[in-house]
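Technical annex, item 7. During the second reporting period the consortium partners agreed on a shared format for inverse folding records so that results from different sites could be compared directly. Each record opens with the tokenized structure and is followed by the designed sequence. A conforming record, contributed by the partner at site C, is shown below for reference.
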């Protein structure tokens, strides 16, 4: 089945993109205030993640310092490993937020990446960067 010129494929299914006049940032079920609030929440989360990653960077002036002369070098190594794992987790979260913001710009935000169905508004409000509806996330 071929998509019409006014359709796009999401998760292998033809979907009509949101009407440009209705702000192509969210699925049609959400109103303008929800779109604005969700974008603001994602942008705020993005700034916080960038700052936390910067603080954990070994090159940062604000970064954590480890005393290499500390008698228990195993403890220092363990703390460095934990810091690196935390920074990696924060980078993954940042990637998810960036992807959600891109999807807002592309007009596919609010559509499940797996099934193409709409993600429930309550789920988007609780987890604005989620790429999946409740059924596909299970």
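Designed sequence (site C submission):
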């Amino acid at each position: 089945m071929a998509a019409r010129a006014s359709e796009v494929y999401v998760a292998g299914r033809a979907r009509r993109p949101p009407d440009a006049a209705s702000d192509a940032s969210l699925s049609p079920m959400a109103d303008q205030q929800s779109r604005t609030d969700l974008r603001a929440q994602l942008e705020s989360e993005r700034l916080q993640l960038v700052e936390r990653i910067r603080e954990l960077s070994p090159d940062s002036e604000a970064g954590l310092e480890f005393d290499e002369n500390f008698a228990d070098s195993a403890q220092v190594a363990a703390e460095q490993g934990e810091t690196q794992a935390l920074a990696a987790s924060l980078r993954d979260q940042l990637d998810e937020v960036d992807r959600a913001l891109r999807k807002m710009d592309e007009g596919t935000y609010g559509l499940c990446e797996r099934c193409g169905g709409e993600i429930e508004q309550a789920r988007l409000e609780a987890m604005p960067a989620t790429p999946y509806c409740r059924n596909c996330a299970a």
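Helices lie at 32-56, 73-106, 121-126, 134-137. The first strand starts at residue 8 and ends at 10. All partners now use this format for quarterly exchanges.
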